[in-house]
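Q: What residues go here?
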């Protein structure tokens, strides 16, 4: 079946430029087009060779010049937003290639690009078509990893190598699950995947051997972006010009507020408790391994009814979300996640809420530890974040706004997406989730402290010479994490400085609400939230202007 692009130009001065820029973006990141539901990009891996990315950057420069030459007075108000979004869609990859040098410094740029998930979890086309897309993807793996061996610097940061080895180590299982899916159709389909899978797995194993035996012995602890590039990162991702020092101060203030409230709750117990005692009571109340996914499905239904009953935000219908176990290949890096329908997805509005189950091969102690982390209160808080009123509901709003421009459908600000979902956790407590039980609020505060520490660690690690050990102690002392998860969070900050996004976005939304809810929206949370979700996932630096009452 020939895929016809949904990217039709609008009849205005920006129309053909908008489509040209988006096609340019997808030429560098075809998997992003697939995620959005643009299946003409199926079966492609990115060309990350120096010759291609040089040409891509030169093309991006030309598109930015073209964009800048369009007079603002020729554009309607919402198209002025679109021009900003299109500019950031180009500036982001330019930063990654030219400023942070990801393709020379980070093997995850390569192994992290290899995914068959979009073809496996949604039946957007008959199985033979999706199998063919997976096979073509697998056939492109050797060339991608050959590019990596040619392009990577001789000395690489230790944390980048560590996670690249973990991600790459999970790829054979991922490929095997693709073959199993193909086999459910026919032996011939399974054979198509098997033929493509063998050289792909060989290439992966050779690349991992190279990383382990040549790069790991000479690895460096140096990973930081540095102050100037960090400030630039805030702009290209979020349109934020606020000095990172001010963002850090706001993060500390939020952390102190959350800590103070946690101490207040501990003091209400009879007899009063310490924070560890308070958390222990929450951790102990968890479902069994067998009941984990069914419990999450019940919580999805409860969350939807809660949002509707409290009139917090419009739920576009049909709104259907099913819960499944996280696929095996994704379990090492995920506790729970949302796979939403893309804005161009033609298969319907169903969301898939993945929850990572207990591994039967774990020791009894490890199984209990996992279930404690997914206790009932925290699983409910995660459900508010991932499903209603968080990620899934927000993506439904993106899909329902049929008049939205391509730019607003394609641009996703991490700080808006994650900030909205994180804000929804606090919103739910404010609205009386679980009859304002102490346990529900403790779970929300525990996750809020984690996100506060992520913001602070991101800034410290990349601008102030903070060490991994210092970041680990931050998560332990201020976020009440145990040593192992604290270490994992600190390591994540080295290669993902953008995990500031949860708190940065939440604070931006809370600030807007404090300033505008009464004056601009008559005190109606639903009106405020519906308006906020009208713009897709805009950069948080643009929110004040967008939300100003008209």
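A:
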């Amino acid at each position: 079946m020939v895929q016809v692009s949904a990217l039709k130009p609008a009849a205005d001065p920006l129309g053909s430029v908008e489509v040209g820029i988006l096609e340019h973006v997808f030429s560098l990141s075809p998997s992003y087009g697939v995620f959005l539901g643009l299946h003409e990009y199926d079966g492609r891996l990115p060309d990350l060779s120096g010759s291609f990315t040089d040409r891509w950057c030169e093309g991006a420069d030309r598109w930015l010049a073209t964009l800048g030459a369009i007079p603002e007075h020729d554009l309607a108000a919402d198209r002025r937003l679109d021009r900003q979004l299109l500019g950031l869609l180009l500036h982001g990859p330019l930063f990654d290639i030219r400023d942070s040098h990801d393709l020379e410094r980070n093997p995850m740029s390569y192994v992290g690009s290899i995914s068959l998930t979009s073809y496996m979890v949604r039946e957007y086309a008959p199985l033979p078509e999706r199998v063919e897309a997976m096979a073509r993807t697998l056939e492109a793996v050797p060339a991608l990893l050959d590019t990596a061996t040619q392009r990577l610097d001789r000395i690489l940061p230790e944390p980048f190598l560590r996670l690249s080895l973990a991600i790459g180590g999970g790829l054979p299982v991922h490929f095997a699950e693709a073959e199993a899916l193909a086999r459910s159709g026919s032996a011939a389909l399974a054979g198509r995947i098997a033929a493509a899978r063998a050289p792909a797995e060989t290439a992966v194993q050779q690349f991992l051997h190279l990383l382990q035996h040549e790069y790991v012995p000479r690895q460096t602890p140096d990973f930081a972006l540095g102050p100037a590039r960090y400030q630039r990162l805030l702009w290209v991702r979020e349109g934020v010009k606020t000095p990172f020092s001010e963002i850090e101060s706001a993060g500390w203030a939020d952390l102190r507020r959350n800590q103070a409230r946690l101490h207040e709750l501990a003091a209400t117990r009879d007899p009063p408790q310490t924070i560890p005692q308070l958390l222990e009571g929450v951790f102990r109340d968890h479902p069994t391994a067998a009941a984990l996914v069914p419990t999450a499905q019940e919580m999805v239904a409860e969350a939807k009814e809660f949002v509707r009953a409290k009139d917090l935000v419009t739920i576009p219908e049909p709104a259907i979300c099913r819960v499944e176990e996280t696929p095996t290949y994704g379990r090492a890096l995920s506790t729970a996640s949302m796979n939403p329908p893309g804005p161009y997805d033609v298969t319907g509005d169903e969301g898939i809420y993945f929850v990572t189950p207990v591994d039967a091969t774990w020791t009894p102690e490890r199984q209990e530890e996992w279930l404690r982390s997914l206790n009932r209160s925290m699983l409910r808080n995660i459900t508010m974040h991932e499903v209603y009123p968080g990620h899934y509901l927000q993506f439904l709003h993106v899909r329902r706004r049929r008049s939205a421009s391509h730019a607003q459908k394609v641009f996703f600000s991490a700080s808006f997406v994650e900030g909205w979902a994180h804000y929804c956790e606090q919103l739910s407590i404010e609205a009386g989730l679980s009859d304002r039980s102490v346990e529900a609020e403790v779970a929300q505060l525990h996750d809020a402290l984690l996100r506060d520490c992520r913001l602070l660690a991101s800034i410290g690690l990349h601008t102030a010479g903070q060490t991994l050990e210092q970041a680990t102690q931050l998560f332990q002392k201020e976020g009440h994490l145990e040593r192992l998860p604290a270490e994992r969070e600190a390591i994540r900050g080295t290669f993902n400085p953008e995990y500031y996004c949860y708190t940065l976005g939440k604070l931006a939304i809370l600030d807007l609400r404090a300033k505008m809810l009464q004056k601009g929206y008559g005190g109606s949370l639903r009106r405020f939230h519906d308006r906020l979700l009208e713009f897709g996932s805009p950069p948080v630096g643009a929110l004040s202007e967008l939300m100003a009452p008209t």
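A: Context that may help when evaluating the design: The longest strand covers residues 321-325. The chain has two domains: 15-218, 256-547.
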